[in-house]
């Protein structure tokens, strides 16, 4: 559930060094100016702040945060499904000749990103809980993810499941 195993483990400074080093190297290699890299630097800084804040949360707050992400993902997944099932624009849009769930985010890959993260959190929760009702959010998020038709979202979830399986154990993840 946490980004680090123990407080002060140095994950955020290490990620910051890698992220900003990658941005700097990209600017040098592509010949771009630093001004064009500012949006990327802002995004990287925002992600690092989010990791730092969430890794320091106490257990109760961390559980509520995870519940909130799963709930947001379920809402987005439900609207994506409804958009595809009922052919409602903008919740579903035609892309490459097929209806793709785009939800209230109006972009299928953005919907897949949120549904994928929430799906992985719901699946990770299944490993720590024996309550069968915890299957419902994972199922709903999976349906929403499939409705998006996003290859990138699907690949991200497969990679996320592999990381989860490596960390939590292959048997419990399966």
Structure overview:
The chain is mainly alpha-helical. It has helices spanning 11-30, 34-55, 59-85, 108-128, 135-148, 151-168, 170-173, and strands spanning 92-95, 98-101. A two-stranded antiparallel ribbon has the order 1-2. A hairpin with a 2-residue loop joins strand 1 (92-95) and strand 2. The longest helix is centred in the middle third of the chain and has 27 residues, at 59-85. The chain starts with 10 loop residues before the first helix and ends with a helix.
The percentage of residues in β strands lies in under 5%
The helix/strand class is mainly alpha
Sequence of secondary-structure elements: HHHEEHHHH
Fraction of residues in H or I helices: over 70%
Mean pLDDT: 82
Q: Please state the CA-atom Rg, rounded to the nearest Å.
A: 18 Å
Number of DSSP strand runs: 2
Number of alpha- plus pi-helical segments: 7
Low-confidence stretches: 1-6
Distance between the termini: 18 Å
Shape: globular
Strand order of the largest sheet: 1-2
Tell me the major beta sheet: 2 strands, antiparallel
Short description:
With 174 residues, the chain is mainly alpha-helical. It is built from 7 helices and 2 strands.
């Amino acid at each position: 559930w946490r980004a680090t195993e123990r407080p002060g483990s140095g994950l955020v400074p290490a990620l910051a060094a890698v992220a900003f080093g990658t941005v700097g190297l990209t600017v040098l290699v592509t010949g771009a100016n630093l001004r064009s890299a500012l949006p990327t630097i802002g995004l990287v800084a925002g992600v690092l702040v989010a990791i730092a804040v969430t890794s320091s949360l106490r257990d109760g707050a961390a559980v509520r945060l995870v519940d909130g992400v799963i709930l947001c993902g379920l809402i987005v997944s439900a609207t994506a499904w409804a958009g595809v099932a009922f052919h409602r624009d903008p919740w579903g849009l035609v892309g490459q000749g097929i209806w793709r769930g785009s939800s209230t985010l109006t972009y299928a890959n953005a919907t897949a990103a949120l549904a994928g993260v929430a799906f992985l959190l719901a699946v990770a929760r299944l490993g720590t809980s024996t309550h069968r009702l915890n299957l419902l959010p994972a199922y709903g998020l999976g349906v929403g993810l499939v409705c998006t038709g996003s290859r990138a979202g699907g690949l991200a979830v497969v990679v996320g499941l592999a990381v989860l399986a490596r960390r939590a154990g292959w048997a419990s993840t399966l």
